[in-house]
């Protein structure tokens, strides 16, 4: 399976890195960092890193065959561009490719509160088959630490794109 993870300039870029680390070695991993996310480029994972300005990257083409793309976290700037068909960097271009090819695109929008503009943009994306999965907690999983809270969110995102994981305690699961 080929998975692209894009980290944009919203708060919580550590979540994107955690998600990347949670992916099994069997997955062909590609990472796009937006300019505002590059401060987090301290990575020791086996991953192909793509420059967000390199629109000629393989990820720009449907023929590359990416199975899943996850934008974690996703800024409202990037949400607005994708929902309006703007593809002016590799993240937004690769996302538009996922939509046109009817492939799995997961977006974790991070903003609070959400404006009507952001909500409209997210609705449009959802209506086009994009999975909208914000970084939100569920208290049933009884997380005690920030680490456990992040594992819960990463585990849920992996569930949504069909990657097996045991990162959190599921509803009804014993302690
Ligand atoms: C410290 C910091 C935190 C930010 N947090 C958010 C955020 O949580 N959500 C958001 O939509 N934008 C946030 N922004 C603003 C985005 O970084 C800004 O809109 C940027 O243009 C996004 O570009 P990108 O979508 O290409 O990454 C933040 C900016 C800074 C400097």
Write a structural description.
The chain is of the alpha/beta class. It has a single domain, classed as Rossmann fold (3-Layer(aba) Sandwich). About 30% of the residues lie in helices and about 20% in strands. A 6-stranded parallel β-sheet has the order 3-2-1-4-5-6. Strand 5 (about 105-110), helix 4 (about 115-125) and strand 6 form a beta-alpha-beta unit. Helix 2 crosses helix 4 (about 115-125). The longest helix is centred in the C-terminal third of the chain and has 15 residues, at about 145-160. Bound molecules: flavin mononucleotide. The site of flavin mononucleotide has 13 residues, from helix 2.
Fold topology:
Elements: E1 2-7, H1 13-22, E2 28-33, E3 48-51, E4 68-74, H2 76-83, H3 90-100, E5 104-109, H4 116-127, E6 131-132, H5 146-160
Parallel strand pairs: 1-2, 1-4, 2-3, 4-5, 5-6
Helix pairs in contact: 1-5, 2-4
Structural class: alpha/beta
**Can you count the helices?**
5
CATH-wise, what's the superfamily?
Flavin prenyltransferase-like
Task: Identify the bound ligands.
Answer: flavin mononucleotide
Fraction of residues in β-strands: 15-25%
Please tell me the CATH architecture by its name.
Answer: 3-Layer(aba) Sandwich
Shape: globular
Q: Classify the fold: give the CATH topology.
A: Rossmann fold
Low-confidence stretches: none
Order of helices and strands: EHEEEHHEHEH
What's the overall average pLDDT, rounded? 91
Strand order of the largest sheet: 3-2-1-4-5-6
Q: How many independent structural domains?
A: 1
Helix content range of the residues, please? Answer: 25-40%
